[in-house]
Amino acid sequence: MIESHAPARQSVPSPWRGPARLPVRPATGRFLVLAGVFVCAACGLVYELELVALASYLIGDSVTQASVVLSVMVFAMGIGSLAAKRLSGNAAIGFGAVEAALALVGGCSAMALYAVFAWTGGWGGLWANGPRWLLVAFSLAIGLLIGAEVPLLMELIQRIRRQDAGGAVADLFAADYVGALVGGLAFPFLLLPFLGQLTGTLLTGTVNAVAGGALVLGLFRRDLTPRARWALLVANLAVLVVLASAAALVGDFERAARQAVYGSKVRVALQTDVQEVVLIGGMKGRPLDLFLDGRLRVGGHDERRYHEALVHPAMSGPHTRVLILGGGDGLAVREVLRYPDVRRVDVVELDAGLVRLARHDPGLSALNEHAYGDPRVHVTTDDAFCRLRGTPSAAYDVVIADLPDPGITASTKLYSEEFYGLARSVLRAGGRLVVHAGPVSVRPRAFWTVDTTMRAAGLATTPYRVHGLDSDFPPGPDRSAAASHGPHDWGFILAVDASGGERAPRLSLDPGGPRLRTLTQADLTADEESAARSRVPERLPASTLVHPRY
Questions:
Q1: H or E stretch covering 501
Q2: Which reaction does it catalyse (predicted)?
């Protein structure tokens, strides 16, 4: 019998799972890993907030977009964590690759979303929803990569010094959550106001790539083969070159994208503290178009049709004191000032930058006939809801709500039952409230929900619908692509306080009022009938602060 001296097969620990061969003491290495967790968590939250903010601006309805981004991202994080289990044996190189990919995808996400919106948003078919699909794709990709971080970092920190799982998780999550706090505060207070969404996101990607690459190549380089070190170094350098090149081209990119969205005649592009304001035309006889956050707010060919229909039916009655909510462009103020017996006009506008533009821009100030120079006009920079809460009862004869459409989430509270209750309280006896309630043809349910909500607040209402002319104006060299898709109509609702048994107000014009260019009594009768034909058959619930219906 021959005795075998061959060694029995034994389980040999993988060099990737053994103690890390660090160039520093374990305590220092552990601190550096937690610092990397902190930085990467901050970057990850910036990517999330950037997607929510940009999607709300490009697509609208911020509640829906935030829900899509966060739910898809959290789901993807779970999938990413599971997938990262396959990389645990190569945690260092796996983490480095994940961070390089995350820096590239997250850093370029804002520019890619804006590019799809600018160059494909006007097409039909699949590309009409291009920004929505890309939003989901980026949320999924970023979520997968963020989810893969935690298991890999847990493996790395345990290879530095073994400890109980609960303690390691507590340390890791503490650094992660503190980093998320810093990223969450840095985005609205530093990155967005000082750098903008595109440059801010590119800078975040750069920080992400540097932090991830430095952690792996500096702290765990002895655990990597020479080939892996070079591959990771080249990948990170390539990511940094892409991000730096994109940052250098941001200015040219924004101008080209703005031209694709608005046309070639952009005269003013201003990012205020509240919104992006773009002016097209308004000089040398060209009609002026005003865009707020990419939405056409004033169309030069039919702005008088809009503002005369908004203001003058409400002025058919007492109008000594007038309150205008919104309307920072000064065009509703212009119409009010055409009545010489008006003694005071209070304008409550959230965006001080828009008011400054309306005062000083030669095109816009000429269009509003320098309304803000009239001593009867007083401007307050405030939220309309907050201003109404602080306004004494029976303070105004007329209240004009010239606000963004109710479908925009930021405006939803300004179309609530509580808001209309406050508006009713500031009306004097016989006073009138008029509300811009959005396009009827596009969103009839929203329009009639506004009507229901106003009646629930104790107002007697008369809806009317004014057809626009701007959408029928053919695109041309003086016309932007976005402006050619202006609203086909506007819905308005005139109301009075019904607490004393008053009936719905009659649509009429002041017989002693100014001569109007676009509006006649016959037009108002037709506008009321047009609104009645669009009525939604089912009974719609009122919209409240805690249960918005738009």
A1: none
A2: S-adenosyl 3-(methylsulfanyl)propylamine + putrescine = S-methyl-5'-thioadenosine + spermidine + H(+)
Q: Which of 176, 302, 351, 402 is catalytic?
A: 402
397 is in an annotated binding site: no
Q: What is the pLDDT of residues 471-520, one digit of tens each?
A: 444 444 444 444 445 568 999 999 999 988 889 999 999 999 999 999 99
Contact criterion met (CB below 8 Å) for 437 and 466: no
pLDDT at 238 over 70: yes
Give the pLDDT confidence of 158-176 residue by residue, as tens digits. Answer: 888 877 777 888 999 999 9
Q: Can 402 be counted among the known catalytic residues?
A: yes
Domain for residue 261, yes or no? no
pLDDT of residue 486: 59
Q: Which amino acid is residue 457, in one-letter code?
A: A
- Cα–Cα distances in angstroms (integers) from residue 387 to residues 190, 344, 381, 453, in the given order: 28, 16, 9, 20
269 is in an annotated binding site: no
d(CA 418, CA 403): 16
Torsion-angle region of 475 (φ positive above 0: left; ψ -120 to 50: alpha; else: beta): beta
Q: What is the CATH number of the domain that holds 399?
A: 3.40.50.150
pTM of the model: 0.81
| Residue 302 assigned ligand-binding role | no
Q: Report pLDDT for 487.
A: 66
Q: Are 359 and 365 in contact (CB under 8 A)?
A: yes
Q: Which domain holds residue 110?
A: 26-255
pLDDT at site 96: 96
Parallel, antiparallel or unpaired: strands 344-348 and 396-402: unpaired
Look at residue 8 and tell me if it is in a domain.
no
